[in-house]
Amino acid sequence: MGVVGAVFWKEFRGFINSPLAYIFLILFLLYLGATFFFGGLVAGGFTGIQVKEASLEAFFASLPYAFVIIVPALAMKLWPDELKLGTVELLMSYPVKPRHVVVGKFLAGLALIATALACTLVTPFTVASYGRLDWGPVQGSYLASLLLGGAFLSVGLFAGALCREQVTAFILTLLICGALVLVGKTEYLMTTAEGFSVWANRIAFNTRFESMAKGVIDLRDVIYFTTFIVAFLTLNTTVLEARKAK
User: How many other β-carbons are positioned within 10 Å of the β-carbon of residue 219?
Assistant: First the structure.
């Protein structure tokens, strides 16, 4: 199975055997369902929501904000518990490479995020029954959602490796991810200098997420998210290597 597979299975099994995973899934689904439902009421009632155009725009528009809260809560247990109990020192004493442990934990968290997204697939099929649904934007939105969740998770892993307390790791991850989403909001960009707004728009998560959610998969957006994930996983590995060197 290898180190990555062993760590992945250990962490994923830990998720499914603890209430955290189910709380994560329930809150995630309730939030998306509630925002989509009430968004539909504003548009004219759920039975009439996008009947002619059958759109999931309101559903996916709320997803980055759900991830800002939910993913940090998911990630905060991946490292702080081991740091607090001292098991990370035991783990680092084995002949394993820190990057393999980091990747294994990341894949376990990403698998749970993918499971949560899979649970929402009933929504597009339900909406499609009310009208003609353009599946291009739906597919782009799911890809963007997985990449966004992975980016948030990588930040959470890095923050967790720095902090021994779960609450501290949660707050740090929340602040970083929240800033990367809100910095691209039109309301914010309108209040900033033109040069800064251009820069902020380029690094903002929601800008790239919304672009992919339109069904236009720009390779630059995929590369941006992938590079971001690799960068923070590398930072996580560097922190662990520094701990191992002590």
Answer: 7
CA 31/CA 41 separation, integer angstroms: 15
Closest CA to 109 of 171, 24, 30: 24
Between CA 39 and CA 33 the distance in angstroms is 10
Closest C-alpha among 58, 50, 41 to residue 130: 50
Report how far residue 39's alpha carbon sits from residue 121's, in angstroms, rounded to the nearest whole number. Answer: 18
pLDDT for 175-198, tens place per residue?
A: 999 888 887 665 554 555 555 566
In whole angstroms, how far apart are CA 182 and each of 7, 66, 186, 188, 232? Answer: 34, 13, 9, 7, 20
Question: What are the pLDDT digits (tens) for 99-124?
Answer: 999 999 999 999 999 999 999 988 88
SS3 132: coil
Q: Exposed, middle or buried, 31 (CB in 10 Å: 0-12/13-18/19+)?
A: middle
Tokens linked to 39 = 């968004």
- Tell me, what DSSP letter sits at residue 41? H
Q: pLDDT exceeding 70 applies to what percent of the chain?
A: 84
Within 8 A by CB and 6+ apart from 192, the residues are 200
What is the percent of the chain with per-residue pLDDT over 90, rounded to a whole number? 30
Alpha helices in 132-193 (DSSP H): 135-162, 166-182, 186-189
Rg (CA), the chain: 19
